[in-house]
Write a structure and sequence with these properties.
The chain folds into 3 domains: 46 residues, no CATH class; 244 residues, Aldolase class I (TIM Barrel, Alpha-Beta Barrel), CATH 3.20.20; 46 residues, no CATH class. The protein is built from 8 helices and 19 strands. The strands form 5 sheets. An 8-stranded mixed β-sheet has the order 8-9-11-12-13-14-15-16. A 3-stranded antiparallel β-sheet has the order 1-6-5, with no helix packed on it. A 3-stranded antiparallel β-sheet has the order 2-3-4, with no helix packed on it. A hairpin with a 2-residue loop joins strand 5 and strand 6. The longest helix has 14 residues.
Length: 343
Amino acid sequence: MTREAMLWNPAGEAGEVACRLCAHRCVVKPGRAGVCAVRENRDGRLLTRVYGETVAANVDPIEKKPLYHFWPGSKALSIATAGCNFRCGFCQNWEISQAPRLADGGLRGEPFPPADVVKAAVAAGCRSVSYTYTEPTVFFEYAYDTARLAREAGLLNNFVTNGYMTAEALETVAPWLDAANVDLKAFRDETYRKVCGARLEPVLETVRRMRRLGIWVEVTTLVVPGLNDGPDELASIARFIASVDPDIPWHVSRFHPDYEYAGTPTTPARTLEAAAEAGRREGLRHIYVGNLAGGAGDTLCASCGLALIRRRGFAVVADVLENGRCPRCGAALAGRFRPGAAP
C-alpha cells in the first residue's frame, strides 16, 4: 500500500524532497526513490510504498531476535516489509531485504494492517511485536502505527535494526519502543562504506541515544571471516559497548555462507570464543555466542556466576530470578523482566 511518508520536507527547486528518516538523508528527485528503494518522490511528495505489506510474519521466541534480557521466554509476533537502507553482501535475509534492488524483485507482500497485527499478536499469546527480518526504519510508518496500537493493547514493541536512523526518527518512535537489538556490523568506517553503503558513526550514536532514551538495548555482531573477525576490531566493538553500558548484552553470531559471500567460509568456533573472551576483558558482563552448537545461551549472574536463566536453543528451560535478582548473592540483573521480577 502506498501512503505519504513521515519525516520529510521539500528541498530546493524542481520538486525535490529531503528524507529525514535515516542517516543517508536522501534528497530525492521527482520520480526517483531513496537509497532504501521503498520511499519515492511522486510529484513533490515523499511516499512509502510498503505500508502494511508484510513479506514475513511469524510468531518467534524473543530469544530469536536475539533479545535475552527482554522478557525472556516470551513470544513476539515478528513482521517485516521488503527493503533495507543497507546493501550488505553478507546479509542473511537478502531475499527480502534486497528485493527492491533485484532485477526480478518487488515490493508486494501480503496485506497485514496494523490493527490486524495487534489482534494476531494478542490471539497468539505474544508479549511483544517485533519489527525485524529486514530494516524497520524503512517501514517506519507501518511500524509506528502498529507500535502505538500495540501499546494500547498492552503489548511491548522491539526493533531489530541496523541503527542507521536519524535522531528525529528515533525520538519520534521512542515513546512506543521498549527494546532494540542493534546490529553493529564492524568497527571500521571503511567497512561500512564499502560493504554496507553507509557510515559507522550514526550507528554508534543510535546505540548511545537509545540508552539515554531508556530503551533496552542489546547488540549483535555477525562475525564474518576476513571482514570483521580481527582480534583488534572485535575488542574495539566490545570496548565501545562497554563505554556505553557494560550491562548491554553482546551477541557474537556465526556467519554462514550466503548471497554475495557464498564463497566465504563459516566462522570458526575459535573466532567466536576469542570474541567472547575479548568482550570479557573489556568489561562486558553478558556475552552470548549465537549460531553455534553448544554456544553460550545461559544468562549468568555477573557477580557470582550462578545460572539465572538456562536455555536450550531458543527455549528457556529454567528461570531462577527472584524479583529480578540473583537468589544466591542478591545482585540485580539488568534488563526488562516479567511483573514482579524487575529490580
